[in-house]
Amino acid sequence: MAPIRLAIVGVGKIARDQHLPSIAGNPAFTLVAAVSRHDPQIEGVPSFASLDELFASDVKVDAIALCTPPQVRYELAAKALLRGCHVFLEKPPGATLSEVEALRALADEHRVTLFASWHSRFAAGVAPARAWLTERDIRKVQIIWREDVRVWHPGQAWIWEPEGLGVFDPGINALSIATHILPRPFFLTAATLSVPANRAAPIAADLTFTDGAGTPITMDLDWRQTGPQSWDIIVETDAGTLRLARGGADLFLPDSTHSDGDVEYAGLYAHFASLVAAGQSDVDVAPLRHVADANLRGTRISVEAFED
Ligand code: NAP
To answer: Yes or no: is domain 120-259+292-303 CATH 3.30.360.10?
Structure first.
């Protein structure tokens, strides 16, 4: 089969760190264009300042990978779907739940693939964690996601806007794993969102959830962490404790460990290629719905102003 002619849109940190190497490493794709307001200067690849300019050119495109911040996701994705392109959305898939549903409908209508990606679900420990948990009685779940925003998101103004999600930008990765590995749907019971006095989005959040069996699930998100960083999910079960660390890359079970390097984006692109080949979409909004619920049910408290 001919490679999928792909354009990458929004060439910033994640596009350079992960998408470009993964596209180059997967023969199912050929990178035919880049779309970014600042010329990203990718050797041998023509660049365009907007999707309109790309579509007006004679470059033939089958698919786009959308790596912009979420605020502009819908407009760009809709334009590409209407044009008959398959679309790979970086996480989160949109600024609101409803716009993602609208994209899903557009993809179906135009018979193209929409892939709402959750990269953390492709971390090495996640699939074996999910398999192990299907057989267990789950007693308690703790999610601890504490990182230094100055290290991981320096100067990203968009992340502090309401749709930028604040600390839920990394927190939604934890939710994408939890919604994938825990066998029962769970729901938010309480949340406190700590919002810096000069920002619109939270810098920290404490959340509690439960499920149909009454399992206690807590989530501690904090962007003010210096020193050791934590991206851990700990699940206590009738057969001992499961711990996922480093965002799902390492899995510790009572009698074994699973660990691998950085396999997430290679997995995402392999999945995107298989969806396109099968004529299917993959759109799961469960992680984004929990963030929306936190904003519906959570109490917002004002905390010290944050400067980069
Ligand atoms: P980033 O470094 O700020 O890059 C995003 C790029 O999108 C910018 O360089 C910008 O390029 C373009 N863009 C288009 N419209 C924009 C707008 N209105 N505001 C700001 N930039 C705009 O962000 P990123 O870290 O790559 O994150 C992008 C998306 O990937 C986010 O949804 C994030 O959650 C997700 N993600 C990030 C990471 C990570 O480690 N950073 C990991 C996984 C997923 P031009 O100015 O050239 O248009």
So the answer is: yes
